[in-house]
Specification:
This protein is an alpha/beta fold. It has helices spanning 18-33, 57-70, 74-77, 87-92, 121-130, and strands at residues 9-14, 37-38, 47-52, 82-86, 134-141, 152-154, 160-170, 175-183, 192-197, 200-207.
């Protein structure tokens, strides 16, 4: 039982580019200033912070593997906080929410069911075996209106079939795009949908979640 801040030991796992190393150093400095101690052993820490990177696919995979591995540490299972910082929560915070499973988010490849029991294992195993009712998809609007978190996704009959998790106007491709959680039967590429933005609806289509291609030209 930790009775004082000075008794708490914080560990870091830093992934990705040199900028993350700098960011970790800043976080460590501030924690020390607040009276916390640091440890290099993540499996013995009272809290573990993983500073992630996710700007390229390989970095995303490395970050996810580190998170799932850390989730199996005895201290984390005993209640020590596991804090995910850096690029991943900034980019995918709404796609990795408490009410969205890794299977619905399309991250099933990173969930290993051959590990010992973990929270949610039965539910995830069932989703892998039976399929999911919702899927995370890419959405491209046929308009310059900007979709925002929580906006409703509609089918051709104006029935609500999902919602936007993250949306913005992408400068690199000059299009309004979004990630959305929709009923599985509307998740196929090319499916025509609508996004309700305030009191208007705008046509949209399901596209690949990799919105940007290096070969893209205006």
């Amino acid at each position: 039982m930790i009775s004082r801040i000075s008794d708490a030991q914080i560990a870091f796992i830093t992934l990705g580019c040199a900028k993350n190393e700098v960011d970790t150093a800043h976080m460590q400095q501030r924690l020390r200033a607040c009276g916390f101690s640091l440890t290099e052993d993540p499996e013995q820490a009272d809290a573990l912070i993983i500073n992630t990177c996710s700007f390229i696919q390989s970095a995303t995979e490395e970050s996810l593997e580190a998170i799932f591995e850390a989730a199996g540490y005895e201290n984390i299972n005993a209640g020590a906080p596991l804090i995910v910082a850096g690029c991943m929560p900034a980019r995918y915070g709404d796609e990795l929410a408490d009410d969205i499973t890794p299977i619905e988010a399309g991250l099933g490849i990173f969930v290993k069911l051959d590990k010992p029991d973990f929270i949610g294992k039965d539910a995830i195993a069932a989703q892998k075996a039976e399929g999911v009712k919702r899927k995370l998809v890419g959405i491209e609007l046929q308009d310059r209106a900007i979709p925002r978190h929580g906006y409703e996704i509609l089918n051709a009959d104006d029935e609500v079939v999902g919602h936007v998790t993250t949306g913005y106007h992408a400068i690199s491709v000059d299009k309004s795009i979004a990630m959305a959680l929709v009923d599985a039967k509307y998740a196929a590429l090319g499916t025509e949908l609508k996004v309700r933005i305030r009191r208007k609806t705008f046509p949209a289509v399901v596209v690949k979640k990799k919105f940007y291609k290096k070969s893209y030209k205006q």
